[in-house]
User: Which sequence fits this backbone?
């Protein structure tokens, strides 16, 4: 018997305020509990009520890390959703809509009219629960286990009348399918495992990584799509013993972060590109004063306000070069939600060990999308605070030199009130004691000292991931959150007989030049696939290795790549 | 015993006669009289001649960017409230470049002492107008005269400042007394220090100030009355009040942070078992 792969995509669409997000999340969680791999993302306009928003949930029996272009079940909470997404329907797809509210005269067998509000009123005495009825309909269409859904609904709404009303509403929708749907829908989803995976967003993974890394201070100014990091950490800060501050602006945020880090606490800030612009002078201050901080830039389309709620990868060259002057830094760009967790831990370790700012570069696609992953194994977390002087060592030293010139460039660290040592540092060029100087010799020695840290840092940077066979006709090159879509595109291409592989970067600066040259050696046709207009990684590779990537698949419309889109563009380019 | 010599730093590179010398003496004397050891003190300073003060004494020091003194100081204070944090900067640094930070640090009531060396002119960049330059003050960049000045005392009062004071660099003894009270104050303590600039401000000179300043504590003034404080804050010209204009006890930002109830953040670790529990919430 041939087992067909299971891969079903749901979409829930409606106005902001209709509960699209919460129903979408419950659907994703219920399917994850049944053992499915989930990819879910949300698309919304930058407004609080109204407009069009949708939540996509893709459930598969194998890894799913990107959007699917076709929709199998579309739950339309308003007419606009039908109008906007009809073209995306799979050939056997079903559109669920409220037949009691809107009339669809289209003679379309895909339409399944359900009196959503009526059923909500009847079952839960509340027509606002039409969205939960629709959720029941969606899972009824695939014959999913209603008990699994009920459990997730109760977890979401807590124990009480609201939870039970929602359970009743979901049941009403689920039962309605049995008696009224005869459209012949071939996808049937039975739970396939114990569902012991986490379902979380990239931002949540970063927040958890920060806690695992013992980060106890965060200062951040709200900016989409970074805000959920500070919101999550704020919600847990009392429990874990952390401080999260929302100051007056991003400039204040990064300087508070520097102040707390100087005083000895692991500290971070998070923002998007526009906020990062304001933080740039602080980045230079961290570089000059050798203060370890972690800065998250969750990218969105720019310049200026750009598309506030959407995705792009256009800050790469910016964050690598941001600030006047020259100083070492690291840039890590998580490819997956696992990377988001582990590279956050690594970011804190690198920043402490080399006493410099580390930038975690994500984007809206990774920051706000949900993925299923095996639970992070905390026993594998190591905390490396770098070279610290003990109280006894400090007492023996007599006078402490915060910026002592060493062979590695790393000056053993102490912070105020750790013994009686005086810790001094300066935004001006300074001597070993941290006091301002103007002479040429000290300036040169200090610049060289700081830049020497790069030698050790370079060795810590992970190599690019290589996926797909070695003998490929086409090599795709990408970085950051596009990994899931690119990997799937490679599989699709190979299935069609186009021998394709992938070289993908998640640790970008200092640039792993040697490993990159090795990975690209012998590549026949290279294509940079980037969520930006100018192929910024390709520039970097050219500058650092001399390899020129001639092919370019660029997407800068604010939307993420789908595997099918990448393959279509690739075929167009090579034909 | 802490001695003045314990606070001897690099030799100052200020102009002879600069008002900063008086402020330096006053702050050192205050720290000695409060019996504070240099390692218990963190001075955070900005850019301008005032920002150099911490180099000329001896304690923990974080000399940051122009205008960014207060957020950096607040971060350090939150990380370790056991540090006595003194922020130091000039009028351009604190009221111009750092104006937004100033407003919000006052409002949040961080437990920081903030000394603003207010010479009503930019010294380091050689004589341009500052946010507190008197109305009509002519400089190379304000040939028609400076615009209406900012009134830091009134601004701090309007934002709920819990300690609002003014000192005079020409009276180091009085200033040192103010600094002592400010350091002991639980909350954000602002001391705007009238500081003659002998090179670029030929209007607001030592003599000009001496003719005008009077001490509030010698005039039977009650610094707990906010309306009276606003009146004093607006007094400028013929007579200029120095001393504590307003003070009140209200909750500091730091004491409202639950994590700090268990001691300084720097000495605590997040329990991995707590993190494990949080991971499970995502299953």
Assistant:
């Amino acid at each position: 018997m041939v087992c067909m792969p299971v891969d079903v995509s749901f979409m829930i669409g409606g106005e902001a305020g209709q509960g699209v997000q919460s129903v979408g999340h419950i659907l994703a969680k219920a399917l994850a509990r049944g053992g499915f791999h989930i990819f879910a993302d949300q698309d919304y306009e930058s407004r609080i009520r109204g407009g069009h928003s949708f939540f996509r949930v893709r459930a598969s029996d194998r890894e799913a890390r990107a959007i699917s272009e076709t929709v199998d079940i579309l739950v339309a909470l308003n007419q606009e959703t039908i109008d906007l997404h009809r073209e995306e329907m799979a050939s056997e797809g079903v559109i669920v809509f409220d037949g009691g509210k809107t009339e669809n005269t289209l003679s379309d067998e895909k339409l399944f009219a359900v009196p959503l509000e009526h059923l909500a009123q009847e079952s839960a005495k509340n027509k606002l629960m039409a969205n939960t009825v629709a959720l029941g309909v969606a899972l009824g269409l695939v014959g999913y286990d209603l008990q699994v859904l009920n459990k997730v609904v109760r977890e979401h709404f807590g124990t009480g009348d609201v939870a039970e009303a929602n359970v009743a509403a979901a049941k009403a929708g689920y039962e309605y399918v049995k008696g009224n749907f005869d459209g012949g829908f071939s996808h049937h989803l039975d739970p396939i495992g114990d569902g012991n995976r986490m379902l979380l967003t990239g931002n949540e993974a970063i927040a958890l990584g920060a806690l695992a890394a013992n980060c106890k201070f965060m200062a951040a100014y709200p900016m989409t799509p970074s805000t959920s990091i500070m919101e999550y950490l704020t919600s847990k800060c009392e429990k874990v013993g952390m401080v999260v501050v929302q100051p007056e602006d991003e400039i204040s945020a990064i300087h508070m972060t520097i102040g707390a880090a100087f005083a000895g606490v692991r500290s971070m800030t998070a923002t998007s590109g526009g906020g990062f612009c304001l933080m740039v002078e602080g980045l230079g201050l961290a570089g000059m004063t050798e203060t370890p901080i972690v800065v998250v830039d969750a990218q969105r389309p720019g310049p200026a306000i750009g598309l506030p709620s959407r995705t792009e990868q256009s800050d790469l060259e910016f964050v690598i070069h941001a600030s006047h002057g020259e100083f070492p830094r690291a840039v890590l760009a998580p490819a997956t939600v696992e990377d988001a967790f582990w590279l956050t831990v690594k970011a804190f370790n690198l920043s402490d060990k080399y006493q410099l700012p580390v930038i975690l570069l994500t984007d809206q696609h990774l920051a706000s999308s949900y993925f299923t992953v095996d639970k992070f194994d905390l026993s594998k977390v190591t905390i490396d605070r770098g070279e610290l002087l003990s109280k006894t060592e400090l007492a023996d030293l007599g006078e402490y030199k915060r910026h002592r010139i060493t062979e590695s460039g790393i000056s053993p660290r102490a912070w105020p009130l750790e013994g009686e040592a005086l810790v001094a540092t300066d935004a001006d060029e300074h001597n070993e004691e941290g006091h301002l100087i103007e002479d040429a010799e000290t300036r040169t020695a200090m610049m060289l000292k700081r830049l020497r840290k790069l030698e050790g840092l370079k060795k810590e940077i992970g190599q690019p991931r290589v996926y797909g066979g070695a003998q490929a006709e086409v090599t795709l090159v990408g970085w950051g959150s596009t990994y899931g879509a690119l990997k799937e595109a490679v599989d699709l291409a190979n299935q069609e007989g186009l021998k394709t592989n992938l070289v993908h970067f998640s640790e970008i600066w200092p640039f792993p030049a040697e490993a990159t040259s090795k990975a690209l050696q012998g590549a026949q046709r290279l294509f940079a696939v980037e969520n930006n207009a100018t192929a910024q990684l390709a520039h970097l590779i050219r500058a650092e290795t001399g390899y020129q990537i001639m092919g370019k698949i660029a997407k800068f419309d604010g939307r993420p790549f789908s595997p099918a889109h990448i393959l279509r563009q690739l075929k167009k380019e090579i034909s | 015993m802490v001695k003045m010599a314990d606070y001897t730093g690099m030799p100052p590179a200020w102009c002879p006669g600069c008002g900063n010398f008086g402020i330096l003496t006053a702050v050192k004397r205050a720290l000695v009289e409060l019996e504070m050891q240099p390692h218990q003190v963190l001075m955070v300073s900005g850019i301008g001649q005032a920002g150099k003060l911490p180099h000329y004494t001896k304690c923990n020091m974080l000399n940051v960017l122009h205008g960014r003194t207060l957020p950096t100081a607040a971060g350090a204070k939150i990380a370790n409230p056991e540090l006595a944090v003194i922020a130091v900067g000039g009028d351009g640094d604190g009221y111009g470049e750092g104006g937004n930070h100033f407003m919000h640090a006052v409002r949040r009531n961080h437990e920081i002492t903030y000394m603003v060396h207010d010479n009503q002119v930019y010294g380091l960049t050689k004589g341009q107008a500052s946010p507190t330059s008197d109305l009509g003050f002519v400089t190379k960049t304000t040939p028609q005269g400076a615009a209406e000045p900012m009134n830091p005392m009134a601004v701090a009062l309007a934002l709920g400042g819990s300690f609002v004071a003014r000192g005079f660099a020409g009276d180091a003894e009085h200033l040192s007394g103010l600094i002592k009270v400010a350091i002991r104050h639980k909350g954000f303590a602002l001391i705007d220090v009238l500081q003659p600039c002998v090179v670029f401000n030929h209007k607001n000179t030592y003599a000009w100030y001496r003719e005008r300043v009077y001490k509030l504590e010698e005039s039977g003034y009650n610094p707990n009355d906010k309306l009276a404080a606003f009146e004093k804050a607006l007094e400028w010209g013929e007579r200029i009040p120095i001393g504590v204009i307003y003070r009140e006890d209200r909750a500091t930002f730091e004491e409202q942070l639950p994590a700090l109830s268990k001691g300084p953040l720097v000495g605590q670790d997040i329990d991995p078992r707590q993190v494990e529990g949080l991971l499970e919430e995502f299953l």
Notes: Residues 21 and 122 of chain B are 17 Å apart (CA to CA). Chain B has a mean pLDDT of 97. The radius of gyration of chain B is 20 Å.
